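Progress narrative, Year 2. Work on Biotin-independent malonate decarboxylase subunit gamma from Limnobacter humi advanced from sequence curation to structure prediction during this period.
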Amino acid sequence: MQWTDLTQALFGTQHSVTQQGDFLSGEGRCNGQAWTVVGSTNHAPIGVELALAQARVVLDTIRQKPGQPILLLIDTQGQQLRHRDEVLGINRAMAHLGCCIDFARRQGHVVLGLVYDQALSGGFITSGLIADACHALPEAEIRVMRIPAMSRVTKISEDRLLELSKDNPVFAPGVNNYVRMGGVQSLWTGDLQACLSAAFQSALNSNRQEDPRPMLGKERGGRTKAHDIAHAVAGA
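Result:
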């Protein structure tokens, strides 16, 4: 889905979201609730400038609009892979974005992520996976690594990884596997305004100090050990 169609579905005409290159920012109003909207489009690689631009919107919201919820619109191919960004400190810029999102949550802002197209690697980790909850459209594509790249890194054959991916979502790309693992809380279909409002109320009513993803992964059969191991370590 194009971001223009998405913002129309979420906010109707009650939004000021604009595009500057690959950068999206603005505000929207859904069922009477004002939202800060920030994100990316065009399968954007997240470089230094884009990471800092998104972080600035988050910080401005904390400073100027206390408590206003933030919606992250996610469409990224991951971090920008070029020498210039490495020299400028892409790792610090992306860490700064993640810290700003976490700081917003600690200051009482509900932060929701919505993967509406593509979410890969570091560009997803420092946005949607740090939000109070991350949701996705059914047609979205989410993965950390393609099977061939995973094979090169793990030294496990592609055939073996494909076989493992049939039963273990950790080895398989795809939005449904991230739902099973708990990384994506739900898929939004139908009335997207109703989905956004319901996700907002769910975040408000949840224990925002506890990460729900390990329990979701256990309940959905995608990560059966993470929750119990984390609690065992915390209690050790």
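The mean pLDDT is 90. The chain has eleven helices and nine strands.
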